[in-house]
User: Fold this.
Amino acid sequence: MRLTTRGKMAVTAITDLASRSHGHPVALPSISARQGISLSYLEDIFSALRRAGLVRSIRGPGGGYTLARPADEVSVADIVKASDRAMNEEADDAGNNVREDSPSGKMTAELWTSFHSRVLDYLQSVTVADLVAQQSSQSVDIPRNSSARLSSAVKRLKGRSAAKTQFPAQNVPNSVFALAAAGLRS
Assistant:
């Protein structure tokens, strides 16, 4: 398994989907806008996730995607594998992978095998439910005194902006029509 940008974006998109679906489909354009991921790229990723049975698509008005299984049964490893499967098959067909029977491949094969095994174990231990819980706990943590500090800062800024600018200025026409009318009167 390779960790790619595509896999990372798939995990981000699935986490967004899981945190917002609440039993209803979530449209890809809304995920695209929130996460800053190209819509066409998301469509390609979700197509692979759908083929792997991780998401279900609902067509028509109000359609979108939902998780095909509960969030606590979908691991990050499942998402990464499913999203990158098509790319890995293309790489295998093209023969672009480093051969383990080459001198450099033999020297480091055990290192990379161990590394990939540990990464895979970790990614399998983290579920989408874990990521959603982590995300919601981070977005709710607001210091207790922050609202008082925020309101005093807003008051200070309002006082500054009101003193500096006054629109419209006195005795100055505030539109093209008022300017034309003032010109006719003089």
Residues 92-96, 141-146, 161-167 have pLDDT under 50 and may be disordered. Strands lie at 55-58, 64-67.
